[in-house]
Structure formats: C-alpha cells, structure tokens
Design a protein that fits this description.
Strand order of the largest sheet: 1-4-7-10-13-16-19-22-25-27-28
Number of helices: 5
Largest sheet: 11 strands, mixed
Distance between the termini: 53 Å
Shape: elongated
Number of strands: 28
Strand content: 25-35%
Length: 271
C-alpha cells in the first residue's frame, strides 16, 4: 500500500510520508517533516517546521502543526522541533506550535484527543491519553500528565503543570499546578476533589483511589502546615507508587499549588 496524495496538495521535497498515508485536498507539507504510516490528513492541514507526526493519526481540516511559536522571544532562523505521537485524533482548527529556543521541542504523546480549536503552545509537553476539549488552551512550557482531561474553554498559564489523571473543569483559569488525580475548576482554578473516574480510566483500583483521597484530605483538609502534612503522608503511604507521584508533584512545583478553598472541605468530608 503506497501513499495517496490529492493533486491539490503541496508536499515539499524532503518530506517523509509513511506507507498508507492519505493526504487530502489543499494540504501543505513542509520539507523537514515526517508523517507516520496510515495517518490521514483530511484537508487544508499545514505541517511545517521540523515536525514529526506519528502513525495512525487522524487530522481534521484547518489544523496547523509545527509552525513558528507566537513567543515574542523567538529569533528568526532558530531550529526548533515538534513531535506528535501515534494514534492521535486532532480536530478542526487545532494549533500545535514549535518550540522557541534553539533545539527546543514541543511534544504531544500517543492516543490523545485534541478537540476543535484547542491550542498547544511552544515547549509544551503533553502526555499520553490526554483529552483537550473544545478551545482548551495551553500556554508555553505547560506540562500535562498522562490521562489528564482539560475542559473546554479553559486556559492553563505558562509553566503550570497538570498532573497524571487530573481534570481541569470547563472555563477554568489555571494559574498554579494541579496535582495528579485531582479535579480543579473555577476562575481562578482550585483543586476540589479526587478524580475518581479519571483514576479508574487510568487503571487504578479502589484501594489506590481510597488512599489518594486520604492523602488529599491529610494535605489540605486538616489544620496542618503543608510540610507537616507531607511528612505524615510520606510516613503512612509513601511506599505506594501513586502516592509518590502525588508527593513528587508537590515537591517539584514551581508555580505553587492550586490549593482547595474552604468550600472544598464539605465535599471532601465523606469521600
């Protein structure tokens, strides 16, 4: 099985197209790009810059991938990269921008769903199995953990981290880190509760969910300083790998945590 390229599309010399690719009408493929096997570009898709798009992806009309970042620090002629994994669904008008600094990279993992109008800015790192809903926006250098779900019309500030199996509610304004396994919402977004459904989808059992809930309550729902609460959670549950993920995210946070507000106390009492 060869490659099918619509006659209205432009594929520059040097572009590498995998076996079984379908390039629909009015697409533009740059000279330093690589597209994996069986990937389907519907129409009017632009793949430019030093960009690698994986196998078995489906890309809908008016998507741009690998174009120059909008970062005002970008210097013309800088060599930057974009890497997008396998089995991704990328819907209409999604934009994924290349990195800013020399040899920098913007990454999207495998098995992601980027819904219409969502945006991945320069130097972001998006993990596997991530869902970005309609018009969700990531600022530069954002890190999104595996199995995270970013709600529609939400915005994540530059350099923020959203942890593994976390969820950001629709229309949220995320200006601080969202810990793994939690749900954050609001304007400004704060963590509200443990993401039970998200953890189940990521393969965690009832014991893991119960212990993450206990860790969450210990950290945020008691009259402890955070350092004291972290010490208690480490002592009691630190041998669990999922608790270590939780604690490591706290230790590595640079923008601070989207801590629960007082309203979260009631909804976490019996969880």
């Amino acid at each position: 099985m060869g490659v099918c390229i619509d006659k209205s599309s432009v594929v520059a010399p040097g572009a590498e197209l995998g076996t079984g690719c379908i390039i629909g009408p009015f697409c533009t493929i740059g000279p330093n790009t690589k597209i994996g096997e069986r990937t389907y570009l519907h129409s009017h898709v632009v793949v430019d810059g030093h960009t690698e798009l994986g196998a078995d992806c489906t890309v809908f009309p008016f998507v741009t991938m690998g174009v120059q970042s909008q970062d005002q620090k970008h210097i013309e002629g800088t060599k930057t990269f974009t890497k997008i994994g396998d089995r991704n669904t990328i819907r209409e008008y999604v934009s994924i921008h290349s990195a800013t600094e020399e040899q920098g990279i913007t990454e999207v993992g495998n098995d992601c769903a980027l819904l219409a109008h969502s945006h991945v800015a320069h130097n972001c790192k998006v993990g596997n199995h991530v869902v970005m809903s309609h018009a969700a926006t990531l600022g530069g250098h954002v890190v999104i953990g595996e199995y995270a779900n970013i709600g529609g019309l939400s915005a994540v500030h530059q350099f923020c981290h959203v942890g593994r199996a976390a969820m950001v509610g629709g229309m949220a304004r995320v200006t601080q880190d969202v810990l793994p396994f939690t749900i954050a919402e609001g304007f400004r977004a704060t963590m509200r509760v443990v993401n039970k459904i998200g953890m189940e989808r990521a393969g965690y059992d009832t014991t893991a969910i119960r212990e993450v809930r206990l860790a969450f309550r210990t950290l945020f729902m008691r009259e402890f300083r955070l350092e004291e609460a972290v010490a208690e959670v480490t002592e009691k549950l630190g041998h669990r790998d999922y608790i270590r993920i939780f604690l490591d995210a706290i230790a590595s946070s640079q923008r601070g945590l989207a801590r629960p507000d007082s309203d979260a106390l009631e909804i976490n009492t019996d969880t």
